[in-house]
Design brief:
about 425 residues; about 40% helix
């Protein structure tokens, strides 16, 4: 725990108990009275039983949060005086920000908001969203006046799903508040549980902007490497060999090519570009990076088809095994996974696709994407295999075990450098 003192007279509510909210609620619940609130009754029931389906928090860690209670009843929030909002901020089918979860959470809080309360947002947004989109909802529903009766803060989430090294308390926290006094209180609150310390931003907008550019920067760096991989492929140069050679220089950044999905990197840049376009600026570089990364699924599938044709494997009616459906390795998170782009493009060529991923919840995959993952791959039946996610289970397979899933004439495409260069037919 942090060496900073606890803040007195605090009763917290954490709104939204997903990958971000639950670890935060658990950590605060070790030291403060906390209501962990979520609209999903099944999620609440599972958490009460000590079961976190996101696998972010263990049953033992949950048991340590002795002051944390779980609820999906809004009336239970009435005694809270600090609300922390950790709901998703997705994009719609037109790649525009969808603030619906944020607005609904603000409406829920507004119904119980009292004089002196503070509402802190952690969800990733564009600069200005807290004060321009959320605060008016709080005012409308509560009948209270912002910065007179109630106050706001913004402290961007920095959770990295599946990462057991970088946890809530070990990642420095950016904080901010709507007045200098509130900024100090918000900072003190987080500092009391964050051992890595805090950085108090000069305003809410600065904190919002800092968060959204963290992932935009990563998105652009990966887009550059993806484009380089496509260039090197045309030149018959192995991309990983190039990156390892270049990586011997101390300031070369160690990014790797691949599919860019998830709830952050593949989404957040669209929040920034949306706001930029609203104020009359067309962000060419950011959108160019998004275009490259959004097109990688199609590129992967087409490279697979070309390789099959070169080997004389009939494409129509062929069977391809896609290994991995989550958006990243060793994590059950399916949000915005771009593996679905590979699958849908292969199906355009009338390929029969089996999807295998030991980390996913099969029902969630079916509900979200209409995909029914297989329990285990068959031996000797596939014309092609695409390794799309670098799960540890896949890395544990040797060359013979991997190729045993396929027929004698097989194309093995490794997007994540799981196998050796000699073991595969294609790499990004």
């Amino acid at each position: 725990m942090s060496s900073a003192p606890l803040v007195e007279n605090v009763k917290l509510a954490v709104i939204g108990l997903g990958y971000v909210g639950l670890p935060l609620a658990v950590e605060f619940g070790k030291h403060y009275p906390v209501i962990g609130f979520d609209i999903n009754q099944k999620r609440i029931d599972a958490l009460k039983a000590g079961n976190d389906t996101t696998l972010e928090v263990s049953e033992g860690e949950m048991a340590e949060a002795t002051q944390l209670q779980y609820s999906c009843t809004a009336a239970d929030l009435a005694d809270c005086n600090i609300y922390i909002v950790t709901v998703p901020t997705p994009i719609d089918e037109h790649k525009r920000p969808d603030l619906t979860p944020l607005i609904k959470a603000s409406e829920t809080i507004g119904k119980t908001l009292k004089a002196g309360d503070i509402v802190i947002y952690e969800s990733t947004v564009y600069p200005g969203a807290t004060e321009e989109d959320c605060v008016p909802v709080l005012e409308r529903v509560s009948g209270l006046t912002f910065n007179k009766d109630f106050f706001a803060g913004y402290s961007p989430e920095r959770i990295n799903p599946g990462d057991k090294e970088h946890r809530v308390t070990t990642i420095m926290k950016v904080t901010s508040g709507s007045t200098p006094e509130v900024a100090d209180k918000v900072d003190a609150l987080y500092k009391s549980i964050i051992s890595a310390g805090t950085h108090k931003a000069s305003s809410i907008k600065v904190a919002e902007a800092a968060k959204v550019i963290e992932n935009t920067q990563r998105d652009l760096n990966i887009a550059l490497i993806n484009e380089l991989a496509m260039i090197f492929n045309k030149m018959d140069i192995d991309t990983l060999d190039v990156l390892e050679a270049a990586g011997t220089k101390w300031n070369f950044l160690p990014f790797r090519p691949g599919l860019v999905g998830g709830h952050c990197i593949g989404v957040d840049p669209y929040y920034l570009t949306h706001k930029a376009q609203q104020i009359g600026y067309h962000p060419e570089v950011i959108l160019a990076g998004r275009k490259v990364n959004d097109g990688m699924g199609r590129y992967v599938a087409r490279q697979m088809i070309k390789a099959m044709l070169k080997k004389g494997i009939p494409v129509k009616g062929s069977r391809v095994l896609v290994m991995g459906l989550t958006f990243k390795e060793n994590c059950p998170d399916l949000r915005n996974t771009r593996v679905v782009d590979v699958i849908s493009e292969l199906k355009e060529y009338h390929v029969d696709v089996d999807v295998y991923d030991p980390w996913v919840n099969p029902q969630e995959a079916k509900n979200e994407y209409g995909i029914e993952p297989i329990k285990a791959p068959q031996q000797g039946v596939y014309d092609g295999i695409v390794i799309t996610v670098g799960h540890s289970e896949f890395k544990a397979l040797d060359q013979a075990a991997l190729r045993a899933f396929g027929k004698d004439e097989l194309v093995l495409f490794d997007l994540k450098y799981v196998a050796s260069k000699q073991a595969v037919d294609l790499r990004l």
